[in-house]
Structures are given as C-alpha cells and as structure tokens.
Amino acid sequence: MSILDISLIVCLGIVSFILYFHISNYILDFFGNNNLKRIKFENSIRVLIFIAPACIILFIFILYPVFETIRLSFYDKFGREFVGLYNYNWAVNDPEFKRSIFNNLAWLLVVPTLSTFFGLIIANLADRIWWGSIAKSIIFMPMAISFVGAGVIWKFIYEYRGPGDTQIGLLNAVIVSFGYEPQAWLTIPIWNNFFLMAIMIWIQTGLALVIFSAALRGIPKEMIEAARIDGASELKIFFSIIIPFLEQTILVIWTIITILVLKIFDIIFAMTNGEWQTGVLANLMYDWMFRGGGDSGRGSVLAIVIMIGVFPIMAWNIYKHKQEQKI
Amino acid sequence: MNKVSLRSILSQLLLLLFVIIWILPTFGLFISSLRDKDLLAISGWWSALTTTNVNEIYRMQGMDEQNQADNYFIITDNLFKKNSGKKIETFGITSKKINEFKVGEVAIFKDKSTVTVNEDGLYIWKSENEFTKKKGKRLFITASSPPSFTFDNYKEVLFQEGIGQAFVNTIAVALPSTLIPLIICSYFAYALTWMQFFGRDTLLAIIIASLVVPLQMSLIPILTIYNDFGALFGVAAKSYPGVWMAHTGFGLASTTFLLRNFIKSLPNEMMEAAKVDGASHYDIFLRIIIPLSIPAFASIFILQFLWCWNDLLVGLVFLDQVPSEIILTAKLKELLGSRGENWEILTTGAFVSMTVPLFIFFALQRYFIRGLVAGSVKG
Questions:
Q1: CA angle A105, A107, A109 (to 5 degrees)
Q2: To the nearest whole angstrom, how far is the Cα of A94 from the nearest Cα of chain B?
Q3: Which domain holds residue B63?
Q4: Are A145 and B354 an interchain contact pair (Cβ–Cβ within 8 Å)?
Q5: Among A190, A191, A189, A207, which residue's Cα sits nearest to residue A114?
C-alpha cells in the first residue's frame, strides 16, 4: 500500500465517525417540532445517538469478551467441546505456569515498591532544588518511550562479549574495569528477572515522580515551616508530615503500577521471549494463543488468572465510586 | 548554617546521581546510532566521545596504480576516506612491530622498496624495480581518532531495513486509534454527565469496572470475531480498521472516564442558561462543551496516542506481520531476533521509533503530565 492509500483510509475512518454524529443529529433536528410530547421522544432518540457507538464498542470489545473468555476456559482448544475444569487442572500442574506465577509475584513485589520509593525520593529532592524541574523532566522521559524501545536500550546495556574482548555493553564494561568476569546477564536464571524489572522501574519511576510532585504542592507550607521552627529534623518532617499526607497518593500510584505489572508483556517478549525462566503470565498466554495452532482454552485460563489479579482493585474502585455518588 | 548547606549539597549530588543513571541508557543509544557501524561493534559508545587511539590495518594499492618518475616506480594514495579526521602517530610494516616507525620516517621492506606515511594518511611507496603484485603490502597504523558521527545508519535503517515503512504504518494505526475514541467518547461522556436516561448509573459503573479489565481478556474472543468476520465477507481478518476498533475498544473506558470527570467539572449554570434559550443537547455539546474541553482533549489525545504508538501486543495480534502493515514496535522486535548482533540497526531503529514520542514529550509535556495526574488507569 502506498502512503496515499494509507492516508486515504485513515481520513475515511476518522471522517465517517464525525459524519455519523453530524448527520444523525441533523436529521433529528430536521424532523423535530415543538410539540411537548415530541420533544421528550426526540430527547430519548438523541441519547441513543450519543451513546450508541460507545455502547456497541464497549459491548463488543470489553463485555462480551469477558464472558466469552470465561466460557472458553471450560472448552477445548478449539472452543467446541465442553471439558469442565480440564484447562484449570492443566494450569495447576504445568511447570511453566508455576514459573510464570512465581515471576509475576516477584514483579508485583519489586516493581511497584521500588518505582514508588524512587519516585517519592526524587520528588522530594527535586522539590527543593532550583534545577529540580529539569531533573524531573529527564527522569520522566522514559515514560514516553515504548517498552520495546526501552528493551533495545537496556539490551545494549546488558550486551555480553567473551572475557578477552572489548565489552560494548555498559554494565559489563563497568564490571570488567573493576576486575570481574563479564556476565551474560539475561541468561542467569532468577537474577535475570531482576535485570528485566530494572527496565520497568526505570520507566515507571517517572510516573510516580510526576504524581508525587503534584501532590507535594498540596502540602501546606505553613505546616512544614512550623515543624521546622519547632526544631524538627528534615527526616522527622518527611516521616511525620509528608508521608502521612501522601498516603492516598502512594496508594494510587501503587495500584496503577500494579495493574501495569500484572499485564507486563512487551519487555519480556522483546528481551528474552520468556527463555531462561523469565516467562510471565501474559507471555505464556500469548504463547498459547498461537502454540500448536492456538489453544483458546488454555489461553483463556491464563487471561482469567490475570483478571483475578486485578479483581480486588476493580471492586475497590467501584466501591469508591459508589461512595462518591452518595455525597 | 554550615549544616544546612552541606545537606543541600548532598541532596543535589544525590539527585544528580539519579539523573545520570536515568539519562545514561538513552544517551548511549543516541550516541551509538550516530556512530560508524564497524566501530560500534568493537568499542563501547562512551569511547566515541573522546579522542581515542585506534590500531588499524590497511593494504596499499597494487601494481595497477603505479607511476614512473625519475628512476623510481611510485604508488601513492591516502589510507583514509576524506575528512576522517584521523591522525596517524606511528606505523609498522609487520604485524609483530606495528609501532616501529614514527610518522614521516622511512620504512624499508625486504625487497628494498621504501614507504613513508604522512600524518593525514597519505603514503608514498617507492621502488627501483617495477611493482609486480596485484595486491599491495600491508601497513599497520596507530592513529588518534577524534569523535566522529555519521547519519549513515539512519539512511540504511529508514530505506533498506523497512523502518521507514513501519513508521508510516504506525502513524496509520495510531492516528485514527486516537481520534476515533476521542470523538465517540466525548459524546458518550457528555451523555453520561448531562443527559437523563434509564441505566445511566449502571453504565457508569460498568465503565469504571472496565478501566482495569486487562486487555488479555479480550484478545482471544476478538480475534475469533475478526476471523469469522473475514471469512464471512471474504475480506482480510487483520486490517487497519480492525486495529483502530480494537484500540478504540481498549481505550474507551479510560477516555470516557477522564472526559466525564472533566465535563462534570464545567459550570452547571452555562448549560442551564443555554437550555432555557432553547438550545438542544447537540447545540450545547458543539458550542459550549467542545470549545471548553480543548485542554482536556489535548491531554487525552497525547495519552492515547502515545499508548497506541508504543503498543506492541495489539499490533502483533490484530495486524499481519508483513511490510505493509507491521508497526514499529513489532518491527523492532523482529530485528532484535534477526539482526541481534547488528547494533547499528537496532540502536538507530529504536531511536527512530522514539522520535515521535520524544517530540511530543518535550513539546507538550504539560498536557502529558496533566493527563497522567488526572488519574489514568488503563485496562
């Protein structure tokens, strides 16, 4: 396809949605009159025009798939025959699945914790220094980069050459300059997971940082000044005023990163493709979508396990929403 | 007072350390993408920043290039390409003693022919007898090489490795995948906020629940739908419109949620006044809501655009991995597998894929941050 063809269908796709709303509303106005009964009817038609596309897409792409995936998890690899709990039984006994669960848990433990921790520290440091906003910008930058791009960046850092050769990977060059043996970092089981996590922490610290920075501005200056006058040390201020004040924010950031990490796929897919015991649930699922012609039963089970992970967060969100509605 | 300034210096140093650690990986990638590909494979990118000594082997020209002058046969040429900037310090004529001679000194081969080498790479090889070999002799040189950068890698990657086409494809995926949800969701969010209808609260609860539904839950059923649809109508199951709709679906909840929060914060009185004047919901939406929502649109546009641009999984599952459809991230992943040792292609390709996000990042950082802080939780 030439660039012209591509731009043509791109424009066509976008314009068709704009036209839908314009034309349907125009027709409605054209036939409208001032009869009170008609206005009520007209309004309900207009509601339909406004919400129909979104509702249809929501149904096709989110609601139906959730139930379909649950259904498929009880069916065979082609989704035709009912097999009961067979797929779940397979998962529980599959060593790859256990490995993935274990890795996912490690990711969930390490990445949100360290990202939040670094974000909090850097936000506090940058808040008081004149070049703080430049520093924040730089640390925030990886947020804009794709996981695959970040993968290439870090694969270059972990690059390994034999002991006699010049190391072109930064990490090995540093190690060698201290007189140690170079290592093929990504192939050392267990530890390689942490080298992959470092990438995610590198990216997500920026997210934590900007949200913390915004929240820090909400702390009343007088409170900190007063504490300082009373002779409180900076550390004491940090733990007794800033941390309690940011409690909610810490929770929010933790949740956002946790959800991201539960679905982590790109980094591992690009860096190791799950080899050397680095696989996680999302990678195993992608694998089973296509392995041996695809197994929709097993793939669905894996998707459901990820879904169970976010379920508490979902319930909490709806609960909070209900609380807000009451006020 | 002393104690305070000491603490300030310490915290500045600590922050500086963080900044260096965070910028170094990207900086290394950028420098590497500008380096000569042969140098890239044998030395670390940090060595490109300073003048370094390199040892190189060259072969002089053979008999075809000889000229006769006075009683000598002479072969003369430059070892380096133009403007290499390298300066030769020492040279040798055997692999055992590569530093035997200084620049300008005369070296004598076994066959009595002599050679001298200039600092800029020019050599003169003289002999009383005619040269008879097709290939010239080898010269071993030690030269200081200043930092030198080239755009050759970019030329190669953009036009030969298919990254250029992938770049166009990614735009074709990301632009509609950002604008379509923005159009649909702005109407939807308006209806959820200002229109009265049955089931509105339930719909809102569903949106909030959908915020965190992992997209993995949708992959298999949607792929099945697409395959069935393609088979039924005899069209390709994987296509651009398919990806747009998938991105729209996965971004719908978060876009609606953010837009609704914004529209809800707009002053109620304006809407009421317009209604009293007889404006329909459509008029209010077009003439009041849209103009007021431009900043929110900008934030959401950036978030969704970056998400689509950087996405790998959706592009992998819902597009064919052929040159006319493959997106940048998928292409990069493919190159990581097939050209894993060609760092000039990988680093340059990665940097090309980062240009648009980085541009958006530096130009529109304010909106980007605002969108993130508004609480983006995406499924």
A1: 70
A2: 20
A3: 51-146
A4: yes
A5: A207
Q: Is residue B5 part of a domain?
A: no
Q: Say which CATH number the domain at B159 has.
A: 1.10.3720.10
pLDDT at B379: 37
Q: Do A265 and B40 touch (CB under 8 A)?
A: no
> How many beta carbons lie within 10 A of that of residue A59, not counting itself?
13
Identify whether B37 is part of a domain.
no
Could you write out the DSSP letters of every residue in A101-131? HHHHHHHHHHHHHHHHHHHHHHHHHHHTSTT
Residues B141 and B160 in one domain: no
Indicate the fold that domain A93-148+188-326 takes in CATH: MetI-like fold (1.10.3720)
Disruptive mutation site among A153, A160, A290 for chain B (greatest number of B CBs within 10 Å): A153
Task: Give percent above pLDDT 70 in chain A.
Answer: 96
Would you call B28 and A153 a contact, using CB atoms and an 8 Å cutoff? yes
Q: Is there a contact between A289 and B224 if contact means CB atoms under 8 Å apart?
A: no
Q: Nearest-CA distance from A180 to chain B in Å?
A: 17
User: What's the whole-model pTM score?
Assistant: 0.83
Name which of A19, A40, A57, A174 to mutate to probe chain B: the one with the most chain B Cβ atoms within 10 A of its Cβ. A57
Residue A205's pLDDT is what?
92
- Which pLDDT belongs to residue A35? 60
User: Which residue among A50, A286, A296 sits closest to B188, beta carbon to beta carbon?
Assistant: A50
Please report the pLDDT score of residue A112 as a whole number.
92
In contact, B193 and B264? CB cutoff 8 Å: yes
**Residue of B8, B212, B311 lying closest to A314 (CB–CB):** B212
Concatenating the DSSP letter of every residue in B328-367 gives: HHHHHHHHHHHSTT-HHHHHHHHHHHHHHHHHHHHHSHHH
Q: What angle do CA B84, B348, B15 make, to 5 degrees?
A: 100
Locate the chain B residue with the closest alpha carbon to A309: B214
Q: State the Cα–Cα distance between residues A327 and A295, nearest whole angstrom.
A: 48
E strand or H helix at B116: strand B114-117
Residues of A in contact with B308 (CB under 8 A): none
Structure tokens, A312: 């508490």
Contacts with B353 from chain A: Cβ below 8 Å: 146, 148-149
Verify whether the Cβ–Cβ distance A65 to B24 is below 8 Å.
no
Chain A / chain B CB contacts < 8 angstroms? 330
Q: Tell me the percentage of chain B whose pLDDT exceeds 90.
A: 5
The average pLDDT across A291-300 equals: 81
The pairing of beta strand B67-69 with beta strand B72-78 = antiparallel
- Residue contact A54–B185, C-beta within 8 A: yes
Q: Is the pLDDT of residue A200 over 60?
A: yes
Ranges of each domain in chain A: 3-72, 93-148+188-326
Residue B295 lies in a domain: yes
CB contact under 8 A, A50 and B195: yes
Residue at token pair 């939406």: B285
Q: Of the candidates B244, B377, B305, B318, which has an alpha carbon nearest to the alpha carbon of residue A286?
A: B318
Q: Is B118 in the same domain as B187?
A: no
ipTM: 0.86
Q: Give the least confident one: A17-31, B44-58, B302-316.
A: B44-58
pLDDT tens, residue by residue, A144-189:
888 999 998 998 888 888 777 777 888 888 888 888 888 888 888 8
Residues of chain A contacting B324 with CB distance shorter than 8 Å: 1
Q: Calculate how close chain B gets to A190, using CA atoms only, in Å.
A: 23
Query: How far is it, in rounded angstroms, from Cα A203 to Cα A186?
Result: 19
